[in-house]
Known about the structure:
five-stranded parallel β-sheet, Rossmann fold, three-stranded mixed β-sheet, 10 strands, 2 domains, alpha/beta, 11 helices
Amino acid sequence: MASILQHLRHHLNTRCLLCTLALLDRSHTPDPHLIAGLASLYKKTSGGDEGVLCRVCAEVVMHKEVRWRCQRCKVAHLGDVIPEKLSCELCQTRPLALAQLAVALDYTAPVDSLIWRFKSLLQLRMAPQLAHLMAGAIQAELWQLPKDTWVVAIPSRRQAVLQRGFNPAAELARYLAKFLGLRWQSSALALAQPEALYAQKHRSQDQRWQYAQRAFQWRSKTTPTTLLVVDDVLTTGSTLHGAALCAQAQGVQQVYGVALARTPWLSD
């Protein structure tokens, strides 16, 4: 009990970056690069002082250190093998149809618990804070998005919306558009088969890629020159790729993608 009270007192006084992400400090918007390398950041800043992470959180993520990150799809490689090239093998052989991609978080513990609470426990109050992180990731990439850029979200299957009550990507996109001063288009992008029985997570990597090519349809009568597509969790990138292909077929010239979290790869 004493350690728990000490832990809580620590957060109330110094604001642990991870624990207060969407709980105690609603105004704090940390640099996305700090989030991406939580373990490294703790090691670098904890000499003599507490780092931006409390000791409890740091112990959980210390073994999750990012050794390398693809500069195109932003996937983090965890483990001992460090690729020599700037982009991963998949991006070299099957690149995403995106002008650029930004990712705010790596989908590892304990970050995954925040996303689980947002999506599964319906904690919608977390959406503005999570969208702030995504806005920070975009700013870190130094994108120059035109003012007439549209913001759209990856749509959810009808079954998922009925079960959950909302589309997580749409909630993030709505706030993100507001923070960036861009136009939020809630219905421009739709699923071609809203009654699809299986979510992407139940498909193999090749199946995801093939399905994404025909997964979306454009519902708006007009199209923007530039589009920003928002997703919550990015695993292979096939969903954003399919959305980009759909938009480009309608005449969109540049499609950018942003995801709240990116599933890392573990290399042996």
